[in-house]
């Protein structure tokens, strides 16, 4: 059973459609990256899922229950630009958040200490937030999103404004959190998505272009190209390669032969058999893999 089901979710502001009839499911225990260029509708989507704004059309279901406007008991949320009371300590801030979520003072203090340890801020719990680094503030923000034990943690661009050290701290924390929680985070930094997420949702101009596991999307989008190079170029090599039934095109790229195929596995077996039987001195055999960046650029350009 999915944790959350989204059906035909739409948001319009006057004549502008910001999110356009998107549908997807979030599975329990997965880390999902919501990808898209600036202005794609990512933040609007996350704010609807968190219950901060109402959709124009569509439905959001949490398990079997209708998702209503006030869903604070289901969702932990970290906005792209979190605001803190800089005069508070980290401990005071989390206790304040916990009591807003209807925890008793003792419960809030116990939970605050637990989460400060999780986000590796225990040694700084008495430090004023105004003296925190950017990475420390984001980790504190993630801790506040977890104070009420939500089923779904939503993070809006959690690393976009951080330096490399802060970015690495937050990515490592996300990697740890996904062991115990369902995480949905938006980003336009594709390497981060590929590093920590299980599934992706690719949004552009309010439309959901692709969704699924990173492995499945790679398999769907791979260019099915094999690069070959030889120590001494065999005669009539291009004509011979085209004799293989799964090969449909052969071109040159510097010293490489670029072989476009219908079926990579079949082509690999037939090519290696031909190369061995002919005694060609092979120096390169490389199967091209589309990067997530390649897939992203292709999808938003179509």
Automatic annotation (TrEMBL):
<keyword id="KW-0813">Transport</keyword>
<dbReference type="Pfam" id="PF13732">
    <property type="entry name" value="DrrA1-3_C"/>
</dbReference>
<dbReference type="InterPro" id="IPR017871">
    <property type="entry name" value="ABC_transporter-like_CS"/>
</dbReference>
<dbReference type="Pfam" id="PF00005">
    <property type="entry name" value="ABC_tran"/>
</dbReference>
<dbReference type="GO" id="GO:0005524">
    <property type="term" value="F:ATP binding"/>
</dbReference>
<keyword id="KW-0067">ATP-binding</keyword>
<protein>
    <submittedName>
        <fullName>ABC-2 type transport system ATP-binding protein</fullName>
    </submittedName>
</protein>
<comment type="similarity">
    <text>Belongs to the ABC transporter superfamily.</text>
</comment>
<dbReference type="InterPro" id="IPR027417">
    <property type="entry name" value="P-loop_NTPase"/>
</dbReference>
<dbReference type="InterPro" id="IPR025302">
    <property type="entry name" value="DrrA1/2-like_C"/>
</dbReference>
<dbReference type="InterPro" id="IPR003593">
    <property type="entry name" value="AAA+_ATPase"/>
</dbReference>
<dbReference type="InterPro" id="IPR003439">
    <property type="entry name" value="ABC_transporter-like_ATP-bd"/>
</dbReference>
<keyword id="KW-0547">Nucleotide-binding</keyword>
<feature type="domain" description="ABC transporter">
    <location>
        <begin position="4"/>
        <end position="230"/>
    </location>
</feature>
């Amino acid at each position: 059973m999915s944790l959350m089901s989204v059906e035909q979710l739409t948001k319009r502001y006057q004549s502008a459609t910001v999110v356009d009839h998107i549908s997807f499911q979030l599975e329990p225990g997965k880390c999902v990256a919501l990808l898209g260029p600036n202005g794609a509708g990512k933040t609007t989507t996350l704010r609807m899922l968190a219950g901060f704004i109402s959709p124009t059309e569509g439905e959001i279901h949490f398990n079997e229950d209708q998702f209503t406007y006030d869903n604070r008991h289901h969702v932990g949320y970290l906005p792209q630009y979190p605001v803190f009371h800089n005069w508070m300590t980290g401990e005071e801030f989390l206790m304040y958040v916990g009591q807003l979520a209807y925890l008793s003072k003792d419960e809030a203090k116990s939970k605050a200490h637990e989460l400060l340890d999780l986000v590796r801020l225990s040694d700084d719990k008495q430090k004023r937030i105004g003296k925190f680094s950017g990475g420390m503030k984001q980790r504190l923000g993630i801790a506040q999103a977890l104070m009420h034990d939500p089923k779904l943690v939503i993070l809006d661009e959690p690393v976009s404004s951080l330096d490399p050290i802060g970015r690495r701290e937050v990515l490592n924390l996300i990697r740890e959190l996904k062991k115990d929680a369902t995480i949905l985070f938006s980003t336009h930094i594709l390497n981060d998505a590929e590093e920590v997420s299980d599934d992706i949702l690719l949004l552009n101009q309010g439309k959901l272009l692709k969704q699924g596991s990173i492995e499945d999307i790679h398999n769907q989008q791979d260019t099915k190209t094999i690069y070959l190079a030889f120590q001494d170029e065999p005669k009539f090599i291009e004509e011979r390669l085209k004799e293989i039934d799964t090969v449909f095109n052969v071109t040159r790229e510097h010293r490489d032969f670029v072989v476009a195929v219908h079926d990579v596995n079949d082509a690999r077996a037939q090519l290696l058999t031909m190369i061995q039987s002919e005694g060609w001195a092979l120096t390169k055999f490389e199967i091209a893999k589309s990067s997530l960046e390649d897939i992203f650029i292709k999808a938003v350009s179509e």
